[in-house]
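Weekly sync, protein design subgroup
Attendees: M.S., D.O., the rotation student, P.L. (late)

Item 1: inverse folding check
M.S. brought a backbone from last month's batch and wanted to see whether the design step gives back something sensible before we order anything. D.O. pointed out we never logged the input encoding, so this time it goes straight into the notes. C-alpha cells as presented (151 positions):
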C-alpha cells in the first residue's frame, strides 16, 4: 500500500493494554477526533474471525464521521419567479473521513424548487422548507414566496 506523506500526519496503533474500561472502538474514535490520519489495528492474540469483526467495526467509525452542516440562510423571502443560491458549509471530523454528498429537497414543489447545487426558485405563493442533507445530518431554510410588488 502506497501512502502520501499527508496521509500519515498522525499515525495511531491500537493496543488493548491501554483500554482500561473503554472499548477499542472508543479508543479509535478518540484517536480520530484527536487528529489521527492513519490507524493500525495490531491485535496479535485474536483469532482471524474476531480480528475481522474488530476491523469492520473500526472501519465503520472511520466511514461514519461527525458531520456538521450549515446553510448560508435560515429564511429567505422571494418574489414569484425569483431565484436565490443557498450555500452549504460542511465540517467533517476526522480529517480525511468520507464525506457523503449533499442532497437538496423541498417540502412543497408548488411553492419553491431547488436544484442539485442549492439554487432555489420561487414558483408559487406560500411557504416551503428547503433541506440540505449530508448523511444523516440536515439543515433547513424556510422560504416565503410572495407575488411581485406592483409598480
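Designed sequence read out in the meeting:
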Amino acid at each position: 500500500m502506497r501512502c502520501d506523506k499527508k496521509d500519515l500526519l498522525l499515525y495511531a496503533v491500537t493496543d488493548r493494554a491501554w483500554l482500561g474500561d473503554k472499548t477499542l472502538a472508543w479508543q479509535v474514535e478518540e484517536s480520530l477526533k484527536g487528529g489521527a490520519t492513519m490507524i493500525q489495528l495490531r491485535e496479535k492474540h485474536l483469532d482471524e474471525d474476531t480480528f475481522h469483526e474488530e476491523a469492520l467495526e473500526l472501519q465503520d467509525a472511520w466511514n461514519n464521521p461527525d458531520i456538521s452542516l450549515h446553510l448560508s440562510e435560515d429564511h429567505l423571502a422571494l418574489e414569484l419567479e425569483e431565484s436565490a443560491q443557498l450555500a452549504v458549509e460542511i465540517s467533517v471530523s476526522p480529517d480525511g473521513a468520507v464525506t457523503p454528498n449533499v442532497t437538496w429537497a423541498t417540502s412543497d414543489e408548488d411553492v419553491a424548487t431547488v436544484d442539485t447545487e442549492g439554487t432555489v426558485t420561487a414558483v408559487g405563493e406560500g411557504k416551503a422548507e428547503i433541506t440540505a442533507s449530508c448523511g444523516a445530518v440536515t439543515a433547513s431554510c424556510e422560504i416565503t414566496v410572495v407575488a411581485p410588488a406592483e409598480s
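Discussion: Helices lie at 24-33, 48-63. The two ends are 67 Å apart (CA to CA).
Action: P.L. to compare against the previous round before Friday.
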